[in-house]
Amino acid sequence: MGHSTKCATPEELESLKPFATENERRCLDALIANGSLRKAAAAIGKNEGSFNSAIRTVRARAVVQHGWRPEAWGRVGWKTLAAGAPAPSVAPQAPGHGQSPRSAAQPASKPARAPERPHVASRSFRDFPQPADFDRPMRVFIIPDVHVPNHHEQAWNTCLAALHAWRPDRVVILGDFVDDACVSSHAKRPDRSRLLSEEIDANNVELDRVQAAGCEYVDFLEGNHCDRLARYMAEKAPELYGLVSMPELLRINERGWRWHPYKTSIKIGKVVMTHDVGFAGKNAAWQNLAATGKSVITGHTHWATMVYQGHDDGTRHVSVTAGWLGDPEKAADYRPLDRARREWQHGFCTAEIDRDGVAWVNFRPIIDGRTIIDGRVIQGSCG
């Protein structure tokens, strides 16, 4: 993997800071101050493996942002990186689904974007692609509430199989991927209790599977279940608040993904995506549309609903509640089982968004373990 951190001078480590997240900058500062990886990790209370992973991640990001492809990694030394020297020669690859046009190396005479738009060679790592970056509709795969480890095995496997098959340009996890039942304020059944460490391990296994689909750009929106740990700490152990965070436990930065705290939103084109707008139940889609005044996709309700409304200026807005992928048998602790089976719908969403930001959204229901996407029947395994 190229040169180790032991070869880096403080100046060379400083050169990585513009590419680093807050957590990675903390690691870089510790390494600069302490000189050795082991001492630096101990100084900020991290294990050596995760510390080294953070340094490797920011270095890889810096290499990519200099315009080099990963194949050139082994030929890029610290001094070259710090000096911002020209990239080594690497054969170009054409962009495909799952890869933003700006992320594929192209010859200068053949820009990766549409011909009428100039290629932008340098953008922040945190600037995820938008529809205007493509000369075709941008493909966004939207994962609703999964509630790991209380997810429905076959529905989740079907969603993952569809993710692999559809090859999106960007993935949005709408929130409540984590169930956090062990720190819930609801009454807990002893036969279903788990340790937090067991829940986190189970979530990382499933997030690894999302990552294996190969999409570089993933937004992770925090939901009210994901927020349970922070609320538990604030109420039960305020002295420890902030010591443990869900993004760190789920290795969001290490994955190169973006974390969006609960009650915040993202906008892709003209579509707002958030976990919830404060409403639940079968009328939430209409309420969300009225509250936002724009196209909006949410999770939270577990209902699958899509409504459209226009304005007198001719514009159209869509509001979608995107179903869920949990197991109603395991959700019976906070919802009567018959109602959960009757009202909540397994599925996920796909959106194709044109360069003007207008979205064509599809809810993809999972029925009897199957869904259909682009004319292809996809069925996940039962376990």
Give a summary of the structure in a few sentences.
This protein has 383 residues and is an alpha/beta fold. The protein is 30% helix and 17% strand. The strands form three sheets. The protein has a six-stranded mixed beta sheet, covered by helices on one side. It has a five-stranded mixed beta sheet with strand order 5-6-7-9-8, covered by helices on one side. The chain has a two-stranded antiparallel sheet with strand order 12-13.
Structural write-up:
The protein is α/β, with parallel strands linked by helices. Helices cover about 30% and strands about 15% of the residues. It has 12 helices and 13 strands. β5 (about 265-270) and β6 form a beta hairpin. Mean pLDDT is about 80; it is low at about 1-5 and about 65-125.
What is the typical, i.e. mean, pLDDT?
79
Helical segment count: 12
* Second rung of CATH, namely the architecture of the largest domain: 4-Layer Sandwich
Q: What is the CATH superfamily of the largest domain?
A: Metallo-dependent phosphatases
Could you say which overall geometry the principal axes of the C-alpha atoms support?
globular
Q: What oligomeric assembly is this protein in?
A: single chain
The sequence of SSEs as H and E is: HHHHHEHEHEHHHEEEHEEEHEEEE
**Beta-strand fraction estimate:** 15-25%
Number of strands: 13
Main beta sheet strand tally, sense and closure: 6 strands, mixed
The CATH C-level name of the largest domain is Alpha Beta
Q: Helix coverage percent of residues? A: 25-40%
Strands of the largest sheet, in order across it? 4-3-2-1-10-11
